[in-house]
């Protein structure tokens, strides 16, 4: 995948779709992990649900402001950059917390599901890091040229 500004029109929507699918999968697996006996009922396990919901809201904002004409007036490269960086930090925290919660689980099914969730969260962390990098590049381009990179594509 090319991470330059010129490759952004194709790369960014693909990353959004992949991240959206993985967020949904992590959300479903986290809820199913909480239903398994032997999983400690601590905040570490419910944290995954909150991070998935937050990430879904951030992703919905970015997708709507990028692709729906009615919402484009609320699009902001600065907001996208901040949301993506915050999202990356939250995925890192979830990765660490998931590993800690998995080590405290008493059932094998809960530990296995925790390992799968931790792996998916690590993948999400790296993809969100790439999306943050693209957002930083877009913000820099916007500051120097007073227009988002998507405005320059047709010219």
Would you kindly provide a brief summary of this structure?
The chain has 155 residues and is mostly helical. The protein has helices spanning 8-35, 43-67, 77-103, 108-145, 149-152.
Describe this structure in words.
The chain is built from five helices and no strands. With 155 residues, it is mainly α. Helix 1 packs antiparallel against helix 2, helix 1 runs antiparallel to helix 4 and helix 2 runs antiparallel to helix 3. 28% of the residues are buried.
Q: Structural class per helix/strand content?
A: mainly alpha
Strand content: under 5%
Mean pLDDT: 86
Strand and helix order: HHHHH
Proper CATH architecture: Up-down Bundle
Distance between the amino and carboxyl termini: 24 Å
Tally of separate domains: 1
Helical proportion, percent range: over 70%
Number of separate strands:
0
Biggest sheet record: none
Q: What is the CATH topology? A: Four Helix Bundle (Hemerythrin (Met), subunit A)
- Evaluate the radius of gyration: 18 Å
Envelope shape? elongated
CATH top level assignment? Mainly Alpha
Low-confidence stretches: 151-155
Number of helices: 5
Task: List key phrases describing it.
elongated; Four Helix Bundle (Hemerythrin (Met), subunit A); disordered C terminus; single chain; 155 residues
What's the topology here?
Elements: H1 8-35, H2 43-67, H3 77-103, H4 108-145, H5 149-152
Helix pairs in contact: 1-2, 1-4, 2-3, 3-4
């Amino acid at each position: 995948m090319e991470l330059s500004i010129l490759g952004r029109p194709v790369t960014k929507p693909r990353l959004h779709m992949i991240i959206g699918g993985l967020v949904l999968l992590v959300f479903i697996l986290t809820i199913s992990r909480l239903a398994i006996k032997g999983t400690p009922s601590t905040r570490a396990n419910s944290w995954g649900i909150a991070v998935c919901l937050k990430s879904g809201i951030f992703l919905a904002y970015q997708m709507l402001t990028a692709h729906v004409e009615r919402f484009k007036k609320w699009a902001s490269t600065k907001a996208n950059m901040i949301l993506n960086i915050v999202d990356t930090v939250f995925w890192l925290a979830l990765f660490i917390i998931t590993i800690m919660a998995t080590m405290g689980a008493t059932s094998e099914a809960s530990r296995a599901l925790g390992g799968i969730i931790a792996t998916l969260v690590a993948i999400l962390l790296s993809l969100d890091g790439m999306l943050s990098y693209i957002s930083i590049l877009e913000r820099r381009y916007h500051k120097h040229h007073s227009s988002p990179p998507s405005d320059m594509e047709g010219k």
